[in-house]
Amino acid sequence: MKNLKLRLLTAALAIPTVLAIFWLADYYHQDWLVALLLSVVGLGAGWEYIGLVGKLGVTLPKEAFIFAIPAFLFLLLPKDGEFAFILAFAFAYFLVIYSFSRRGTKEGFLASLAGIFGLLYIPAMLGFVLVFHRKGGFWHVLHFLLIVWGYDTGAYFVGSLLGRHRLLPRISLAKTWEGVAGGLLLAGVAGLLLPQFLTDLGQNWPAGLIMGFGVGAFVQLGDLFESLVKRAAGVKDTGKLFPGHGGVLDRIDGILASAPIYYFLAHYILGLF
After folding, report:
1. CA–CA dist 109, 100 (Å, integer)
2. Is the dihedral of CA 63, 64, 68, 71 positive or negative?
3. What is d(CA 90, CA 93) in angstroms, rounded to the nearest whole number?
4. CA-closest candidate to residue 50, choices 98, 110, 118
């Protein structure tokens, strides 16, 4: 019960702050505010990621890796964003050369993989949020976050109350099929809550469910992936920044995994922006 109270209090403080920044950025057409917010989030997640892979025996160049995260996000601000991908491409080669120059063949290979994946996993996935905020505005960001939070909430409460059948016990003992069902149900409901859908829900409900179920499924995959990494590293949480929630990566694992899917469904499949 104490942990639940901490989770609710943390959410009550963090969620309005995050939404206010996205709304102000949209209202005043200041995308740099979103890039700044995502950079702060990315820096926290990047620092925790370095700590996680460090427990697995992989050492990354901290200063260079951390610098690359806000640099990538701010270089996405121009409409084409090509400079961001040039930076990522160049930095990937830097990581490989650095890793092999400091370690043996096996260690250098593992460090290269961990570093390049981290570069894709954190700033590139957060970059999708920046892109669909720029194209779709505040309401699409809110829609996306409602689906993510809806899945997390449904999975947590249904799994806690009714969970009996473990999902993948070799990865996580806490995840259950009942939790997945509860998460997908609430994510599906949240998927309907886009103003574009609500204007004619009788016609748009299939699109809303596609968004909710599609994004929700990847929220679960992101959670499972981080559980796998934490289990390999022998830690319960990636950090202690958010009381009752753990670290930054603990809070955004579902966002990282599902942001590209939201963009793909909204832009390419449903043509919403």
Report:
1. 7
2. positive
3. 5
4. 118
The type of residue at 180 is V
Tens of pLDDT along 39-75?
999 999 999 999 998 888 888 888 888 999 999 999 9
19's tokens:
């939404």
Contact status, residue 148 vs residue 219, Cβ threshold 8 Å? yes
Phi, then psi, of 242 in degrees rounded to 5? -110, 110
What is d(CA 97, CA 108) in angstroms, rounded to the nearest whole number? 9
In our burial notation (b when 16+ CB lie closer than 10 A, e otherwise), range 238-271 reads: bbebbeebbbbbbbbbbbbbbbbbbbebbbeebe
Report residue 242's pLDDT band, with 50, 70 and 90 as the boundaries.
low
Q: Which of 54, 50, 81, 82 is nearest to 67 (CA)?
A: 50
Report d(CA 271, CA 146) in Å as an integer: 20
Percentage, residues of the chain above pLDDT 70: 97
Q: Residue 183 and residue 191: Cα distance in Å, rounded?
A: 12
